[in-house]
Amino acid sequence: MPNQFKIPFIPTEEATPLVNSLVVLIESLLAENQLLKETVQQMRDEIAVLKGEKAKPKFKASRLDKDAGNKPSDSGDDDENKKRPGSSKRAKTAQLTIHHTEIIKCVEPLPEGSRFKGYRDWVVQDIKIEAHNTKYRLECWQTPTGEMLVGVLPEALEKQHFGPELRTYIIYQHHHCQVTQPLLWEQLQEWGVDISVGQIDALLTSKQDSFVVEKDSLLSTALEVTDSITVDDSGARHQGKNGYVTHMGNAYFAWFASTNSKSRINFLNLLHAGPVGYIISEDAVNYMQEQGLAQKPLLRLQSHPLYGLEAIKGIPDTGSWEQHMDSLGITGKRHRQIATEGALIGSLLEKGFRHDLAIVSDGAGQFAIFLHALCWVHTERLVHKLIPLNETHRQDIARVRGQIWDFYADLKAYQIQPEPNRIAEFENRFDEIFTQKTSFETLNSALKRSWGHKDELLLVLRRPGIPLHTNGSETDIRDYVKKRKISGGTRSDLGKQCRDTFASLKKTCRKLGISFWAYLTDRLLLKNEIPPLASIIRQRALVTEPPP
């Protein structure tokens, strides 16, 4: 039991609003007390480790009950389902390309009359890791007029002293395998490659414009041709300061951008997928009214020539927009924020942003715009993370969690075979689950909070193709978190740009079933055999729908 204290049963007639509020207060204090106890124990464990002692042991629950009945039967009844070990394995070497064949003669003396019966093949897989240096001798000719003509290096070299395969390896190791620059330098030195740490950094960050352009095209194309995206954000260090990385993606692409903010203004800027503009259109004004912008600043924005017939011209940059608000006397922080958000929305819609694009998030406020849907996993987590104070609370939590997961399973089945005539049934079940009253007031508050987002949680009933969770975004952004733990953060703006670029391209390649190594090799060797990733996304999105 987390706490020995038990709240006594309160009859319904005595459960006044004051009593309920006091019960919630007591429950929150007990939960906070339990968390503080756990924190103190963690600190004690850490101090013990620093002293050379052992931390408090953690005993895992026995798995005897879980494993019972899972072992295969020895009675012999399932012999028909049993197969010889290895019988279902594929031939591992059948599809291998053989680069070298060596014949090994029989060392035993051959008796007279022996007959040659062919060969028994034994395939050995190996790799060759060694420096490979090439000297290009460029012919130099002088014409009768004195002009010097010199041979031209292969285009893939880009007048560099390090070949495309070495550059591919460095980018792959750093951005895909999370190998730090010092370890890369040490590794290459041991292999006989004469390269400095500064040159490794230059190969990772400089002359990557083509990759940056291809990365930027992913988002603009995906927003145009797909029906939904999932979004998430996390921390990202830059120049020794805490910042944020925002992820947008779906089954076809992943796109990252590091900024120093995770506000709604920042998210709207990123959705522009290019140059950002500000337009005071009718849609912008409607948004400002919904957000409660005061009448005076709203009238000033509407009365300006930029509203109405001139709205389509808009304001092309952030500096000009800030000056415009200053000229209108809009100085309040909240007023400027709402006006900026509205103007960005007006610009987005003027550029052709789709009203029907579903944005699925974990509930963070900056993502709650346009057609917004919520993640069911995060919704259930609100219940799962509650700390029960007695056995009755524990039972209530278990029962409600079971109801939520059963409802979630039925929603997944609905996605596979939508039945519009069942929408009312799902809505009624939703109300029954999230408006019920339990003995745990904190649980009741969590359910009431989720019930307030009914439309966002049940959007899937009208749009069966959208995902029910943001697991895809959380999985994509996990590599970003691992890189942050290994490397800390970026130091230059160019390094930050390349981190976002190659993280986006790597994840997108994986989703499209393209080898990231093959992609890098294709681009750096200028083969261009792999089409632009944006065109692959467009083609696949128009042919198939992404899995929910």
Question: How would you describe what is shown here?
Answer:
The protein is of the alpha/beta class. Among the domains are: 282-350; 376-461. The protein has 20 helices and eight strands. It has helices spanning 17-50, 64-67, 164-175, 181-190, 197-205, 209-225, 264-271, 282-290, 295-303, 318-327, 333-350, 376-384, 391-416, 423-434, 441-451, 454-457, 471-487, 493-511, 516-524, 533-543, and strands spanning 140-142, 148-150, 228-238, 241-249, 254-259, 358-361, 371-374, 489-490. Helix 7 (264-271) runs parallel beside helix 11 (333-350).
Provide a short characterization of the protein structure.
This protein is an alpha/beta fold and 548 residues long. The protein has helices at 17-50, 64-67, 164-175, 181-190, 197-205, 209-225, 264-271, 282-290, 295-303, 318-327, 333-350, 376-384, 391-416, 423-434, 441-451, 454-457, 471-487, 493-511, 516-524, 533-543, and strands at residues 140-142, 148-150, 228-238, 241-249, 254-259, 358-361, 371-374, 489-490.
